[in-house]
Design brief:
By secondary structure, the protein is of the alpha/beta class. The chain is built from 10 helices and 14 strands. The strands form 2 sheets. The chain has a 12-stranded mixed β-sheet. A two-stranded antiparallel ribbon has the order 1-2. Helix 1 links the parallel strand 3 and strand 4. Helix 1 packs parallel to helix 2 and helix 3 packs parallel to helix 5. The longest helix has 14 residues. It is globular, with a radius of gyration of 20 Å. It binds S-adenosylmethionine.
């Protein structure tokens, strides 16, 4: 049983803390799917296709980038499809989202998408991307089976975009968003992270732009997953801040629909004054201040083929080496199930002993 927000209510037997799985009760051997000891079942798989990225967002990546993953350590297209197939066929995965790093940097992305979209039962296939290069590939990705895209865009001003991402590519991102919409990948979801004193004042402009163009905007609270490790409770823009910024120009009404595991709290937004006539939805993902861990349905696969049960895990379970050593599908499925059984109750950001994971967001797969 779970509650709708916060932490699962199943009593802890191990004292809590991320990855406190050693003394967890044994997993029922007949439990199907990716069940954890708090009663949650993961059906939503995030697959990181690469740790590399062509942006260097300050809250995500170090300025110098990450050391390239040695070629033989990254999963091949065949290995990715094999593991996703295990997830879909044996473990109840229903949604597959490709992310990274930047998934468009994989030359074999269209092939991987096509092969995953052909799996049975067909999973929903989506992409989280910075959209650089999407202008050239949106059509082929849609044809291969991408159902939805989320594009990350934190500013509509070239100078601010460059300051946040350390790269001058705003026009290419906007062209990618247009191409995704033209390819029918609608509504394009746009993810924005606000940074105090940098782009937070742009919140209403971003919303007006999204509504005018038929995109669905989501603001994501910044989480302690950056390379600089300078995140503090005082240094990020909260969901409450976002709401305050938006109501200066929009009326917001909570959308009365079940969240159904979705991380975003949705609001119906109606513009006033110069924004009159703008109408639509906006989401706010309050991962830090209003965590939704109790309803988390995610499982993650890193570019190296390790399962992470939570963004904030310190533990991972490698599937690549067993796969390369000849493990069968059932064996891989068992390893994956065991990894998810140990999923922590919550991200633990508020715990006194919270420690940021070694991997940054770009090396986990956001
Ligand atoms: N390169 C792709 C992109 O830009 O969307 C996919 C990877 S990126 C890590 C995925 C998402 O994670 C982006 O929307 C990004 O804004 C978000 N992200 C990265 N670091 C974050 C952090 N510290 N807190 C919250 N969101 C973060």
């Amino acid at each position: 049983m779970t509650v709708s927000l916060g932490l699962p209510v199943v009593p802890r037997r191990d004292g809590g803390g991320a990855d406190a799985g050693a003394s967890a009760p044994p997993r029922p051997s007949d439990a199907p799917g990716l069940l954890d000891r708090f009663g949650r079942t993961a059906t939503d798989l995030r697959v990181s296709l690469t740790e590399s990225c062509n942006l260097r967002c300050t809250y995500c990546m170090p300025a110098e980038g990450l050391p390239a993953l040695p070629r033989d350590q990254a999963l091949t297209a065949d290995e990715i499809v094999r593991l996703v197939d295990v997830g879909v066929r044996l473990l109840g995965v229903r949604q597959v989202r490709f992310t990274g790093g930047e998934p468009l940097l994989r030359r074999d992305l269209v092939e991987i998408v096509g092969r995953v979209a052909a799996l049975e039962p067909r999973p929903e296939v989506s992409l989280t991307t910075n959209a650089i290069g999407l202008a050239e590939r949106a059509g082929s990705l849609a044809a291969a089976g991408v159902d939805r895209v989320n594009v990350s865009l934190d500013s509509l001003h070239a100078a601010t975009f460059t300051r946040v991402t350390r790269r001058p590519f705003l026009e290419r991102v906007l062209a990618g968003v247009d191409a995704a919409a033209a390819a029918g990948l609608t509504p394009v979801k746009v993810n924005a992270v606000l940074l105090p004193g940098v782009n937070d004042h742009e919140a209403p402009d971003l919303l007006a732009w999204a509504l005018r163009n038929g995109h669905e905007l989501r603001f994501i609270e910044q989480m302690p997953l950056g390379a600089d490790r300078d995140w503090t409770r005082e240094s990020f823009v909260t969901a409450a801040d976002v709401r305050r910024l938006l109501v200066e120009r929009f009326d917001l009404r909570p959308v009365d629909e079940p969240r159904d595991g979705a991380p975003a709290e949705l609001f119906a937004a109606t513009g006033r004054g110069p924004d009159a006539g703008l109408d639509g939805r906006v989401g706010i993902i309050a991962s830090v201040t209003e965590p939704f861990c109790a309803d988390c349905r995610r499982t993650r696969l890193t570019a190296e083929g390790s399962v992470r049960s939570c963004l904030f895990s310190h533990a991972e379970t490698g599937l690549r080496d067993p796969l390369r050593a000849g493990a069968g599908d059932d064996e891989l499925a068992d390893l994956w199930r065991a990894a998810m059984w140990a999923k922590p109750a919550g991200h633990g950001i508020d715990d006194p002993g919270f420690a940021q994971p070694t991997r940054t967001m770009s090396a986990i797969g956001g």
